[in-house]
Amino acid sequence: MLAHSHKKFIAREAAKLREGNRVRQIPPVDHGAERYLLHAGRRLLNLASNNYLGLAGHPALRQGAIEAVERYGTSSGASRLVSGNFALLDELEREMSSFKGQEDALVVGSGFAANLMILSSLADRHTVVFSDRLNHASIVDGIRLSGAKHVRYRHNDTDHLAKLLEAHAGAPRKVLVTDTVFSMDGDIADLATLVDLCQRHGVLSVVDEAHAAGIFGNGRGLAAQLGLADRVDIHMGTFSKGFGSYGAYIAGKAEIIGYLRNTGRPFIFSTALPPAVVGASLAAVRLVREADTLGRRLLDMARDVREYLGSLGLDVGSSRTAIIPVMLGGNEAALAARDALVERGVLVGAIRPPTVPQNTARLRISLRADLTDADLTLFKTAVAQMTERV
Fold it and tell me: In DSSP terms, which residues pair with 269 in a beta bridge?
């Protein structure tokens, strides 16, 4: 039976969520990664997923998953350090280290787990971690778990960061961690300046390429596109977005990856990814490596869509990627705009606090490389009609 104190606590907090239009529910969606999904039985154009290259249903990935299941079954059965390893995982890590141009790579269960293990392994109470204020929640939680001093700098404000680095010049160890593409704003980090600051101040650099992998740098990420891959200490990315599969990778110098294998609790104490996922991820990396124009097509499409939305008077912030926010401010406005698009056959996310700061609720449009001209026309027509109503 639920304790009376917790019953009162849950009721009070749930009431606050309702009053602020912040109640979340799992949407009635089927086929949620496909270009068209079913929403309460209705077919909608899917601009809400992170399947940026449209690879989640690609025949090569399906075949990779099927072959892995036929060879290895459905589960890894244990942590990789016990008996949960199989040759396909080793092959994926070799492929990723080669693809990223790094000495070694480690595959882990998710991007969230990867950030937790990087930060909890490489930072402690004697460490200062500098973090962009809009970094992903997994980075924030990783810093908390580490016990390090968490120093946030204003979003993409490298002058502010430089002052903070000077103020903490005497710290025994220092780490800087940043998203390269920010998942709710679609803008990108000033990576060149960040890397320069890290090297000037003796700071370990960690980049989260979750929303850049597969898209920028011929699929290798933003650091690769900017020619900075060799100057970044740790590269993290996911297979669950541009690569259309699941899981994450950490790549870098062999000594760093080896240390993480031995200290990363989310890796050590988790059952390894199942064979089907690994087979699909390996197929995806090889596909992106060969068809490296997919990301460029997506970025060109995004530029056209941003210009169109701007012509309607909509605020798309500083987006430079396939993630395009439409800034609306209030929670009610964001929900009403989302519902208006659903009525016109398009699904996008309505993002509200605490995922984004107060009074910055927005639509989050997530474009994908497999959209057709007809899909884009449907979307543009729907948005134009939405602006007349909302």
Answer: none
